[in-house]
Amino acid sequence: MTVWPSVGSTGLGKALGRIYRIKEGFGPLSFGRLALLATIPIGLGLYLSLRLPWAIKRYRLTNRRVAVEVGINPRVMQFVSLEGFDSIEVDVSQGQEWYACGDLVFSVVVPSRRFDSWASVGPSHSVASASKRTMPT
After folding, report:
1. CA–CA distance from 136 to each of 21, 113, 117, 122, 132 (Å)?
2. Which domain holds residue 75?
3. How far is residue 80's CA from residue 78's CA, in Å, rounded to a whole number?
4. DSSP E strand boundaries for the chain
5. How far apart are CA 134 and CA 65, in angstroms?
6. Number of domains within the chain
């Protein structure tokens, strides 16, 4: 599956998404819809800036890895193997829900050391801590 970054992956896109979701107004005319009409040139410029030949980026997701490809003729610039991750979640931040997009969060559970010694300071149990790496979509 190939996924293209949306306008919601940029800071300006998230700010516009927070404005667009405002539902206060009269009938079908809400503040968010009026702001959407007023900012069409900004949104269009932002979308087209993501599609410039030197800025084209896409993410290719397979059952083994996620690859970041750039350029008109896709070249793999980075990739992450999915073998070492325990879970992959979609984190939707404010402003991204209007676009129905989010960031992929790859989580690895790293078990901490178990202290079975009587001289240890804390109780004897193992605790799992999660380290996260994110990849925007």
Report:
1. 21, 32, 43, 39, 13
2. 2-136
3. 7
4. 2-3, 25-26, 29-30, 57-61, 65-70, 75-81, 87-91, 103-111, 128-136
5. 14
6. 1
CA pair distance 33, 31, nearest whole angstrom: 6
The token pair that represents 61 in the structure block? 């997701």
CA dist 100 and 20 (Å) reads 13
What does each of the 137 residues of the chain score in pLDDT, given as a tens digit?
888 888 999 999 999 999 999 999 888 899 999 999 999 999 999 999 999 988 899 999 899 998 999 999 999 999 988 888 888 888 999 999 999 998 888 888 776 554 443 332 333 232 333 334 445 54
- 73, amino acid identity: N
pTM to 2 decimals?
A: 0.70
